[in-house]
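Design request, tokens follow.
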């Protein structure tokens, strides 16, 4: 063997040794960083250092669903420990790993969004998780439905809720109640004309008496809301001009503030208190 060949071989050996030492050093530092997080505080803390699911999936040799199960079981235990103050820090990362490993595993996405919405009180993160579920399962109505539910009943963002309800209704198999929740979101956004048309369509196409009754009660509420708003505005104008509330609602017509006094959907007069100037429906809709 020539001197040159021996020299090159020695150089290769030294390089390999140095590379192995450097690699061991990197892993040692990672281990030290992981162990700084007390095991008692974060059991199984090494999981938070896992790479993204899209990369991890290739290392499972076809057992990605099994790994998703294991991480999900760990996550349930982890997020049940209320002694970990920063446990929500890696929530998005952990549940995105599960979703990448098994895109059709619905329970973790549902739970992850629930934890984000109610435990972490981070509704934007809950929506992000549900959007991820819909992106991977575009034929599943459950994900946009839950997003709409969180927006409507937690954040009271009825405008955005409508968009998610519309997405839900565009997916085959969604339950009929979604349409009614959509109509309710329109009403709560104070778009009364469109809410009336939507509930009227539900009433006219209802296949059972219960749905018709529900729609009828909502129509009553919408009309009563619009009518009492009209009365309140006229009463305020009357008080501004005369310095007092009208003694009865008919005064609003004689004073020229209204052409006629509206009546409720059952053709009953609205109740009026001349001492407070309050006008309200004569009937509770659900007791009609």
């Amino acid at each position: 063997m020539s001197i040159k060949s021996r020299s090159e071989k020695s150089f290769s050996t030294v390089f390999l040794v140095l590379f192995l030492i450097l690699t061991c050093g990197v892993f040692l530092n990672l281990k030290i960083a992981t162990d700084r997080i007390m095991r008692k505080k974060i059991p199984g803390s090494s999981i938070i250092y896992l790479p993204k699911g899209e990369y991890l999936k290739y290392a499972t040799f076809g057992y990605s669903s099994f790994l998703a199960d294991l991480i999900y079981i760990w996550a349930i235990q982890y997020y049940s420990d209320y002694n970990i103050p920063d446990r929500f820090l890696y929530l998005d990362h952990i549940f995105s790993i599960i979703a990448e490993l098994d895109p059709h595993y619905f329970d973790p996405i549902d739970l992850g969004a629930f934890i984000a919405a109610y435990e972490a009180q981070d509704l934007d993160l809950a929506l992000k998780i549900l959007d991820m579920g819909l992106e991977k399962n575009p034929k599943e109505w459950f994900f946009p439905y839950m997003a709409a539910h969180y927006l409507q009943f937690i954040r009271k963002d009825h405008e955005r809720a409508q968009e998610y309800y519309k997405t839900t209704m565009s997916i085959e198999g969604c339950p009929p109640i979604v349409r009614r929740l959509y109509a309710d979101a329109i009403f709560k956004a104070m778009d009364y004309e469109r809410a009336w048309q939507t509930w009227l369509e539900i009433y006219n196409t209802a296949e059972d008496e219960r749905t018709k009754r529900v729609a009828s009660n909502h129509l009553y509420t919408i009309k009563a809301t619009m009518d009492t708003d009209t009365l309140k505005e006229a009463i305020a104008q009357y008080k501004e001009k005369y310095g007092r509330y009208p003694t009865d609602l008919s005064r609003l017509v004689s004073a020229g503030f209204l052409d006629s006094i509206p009546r409720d959907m059952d053709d009953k007069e609205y109740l009026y208190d001349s001492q407070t100037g309050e006008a309200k429906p004569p009937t509770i809709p659900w007791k009609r």
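Comment from the thread starter after seeing the answer: thanks! Residues 37-41 have pLDDT under 50 and may be disordered.
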